[in-house]
Amino acid sequence: MRTIIIRRLEFDAGHRVLGHEGKCRHPHGHRYAVEIEVSAPELDSIGRVIDFSIVKELLGGWIDENLDHAFLVSVEDEPLAEALHSVGSNVYTMMNNPTAENIAALLLLKATDLLRDLMVESVTVYETPNCRAVAR
Ligand SMILES: [Zn+2]
Fold first, then answer.
1. pTM of the model as a whole
2. Continuous segment of H or E residues that includes residue 30
3. Which of 24, 35, 101, 121 is the catalytic position?
4. Residue 86: which H helix or E strand, with range?
5. How many Å lie between the centroid of ligand 1 and the Cα of residue 16?
6. In this predicted structure, what is the pLDDT of residue 1?
7. How far apart are CA 115 and CA 132, in angstroms?
8. Which single residue of 1, 26, 115, 128 has CA 20 to 30 Å from 82?
């Protein structure tokens, strides 16, 4: 048997998807929700994978510092990054397009780095209540 815990985190951010055929090519924002699934080889002495608050503190802390109320910009989207910098906005530059898929992959890497003793099973990013991407 393997027990998994799931911690939900939320943040607000703007983005635009370069090359998108429709409305998502325009700058806009989302209330993103993140669900991180974590397991451990065995439960600790009081029966936990890890305290939920530690996941919030580590991954939630990184999100608060880097993504919350920031604009997520592809490294290839220099005009937008420059415009945002010129008005003093928070910008988080991604190596690829800021899609839910790529944000999930980014957060999976960060979570794996921040929660070293644990197994990060997946990170799900909800761009809207109906649309989500999962990185495993
Ligand atoms: Zn969007």
1. 0.96
2. strand 28-39
3. 24
4. helix 78-86
5. 6
6. 83
7. 23
8. 128
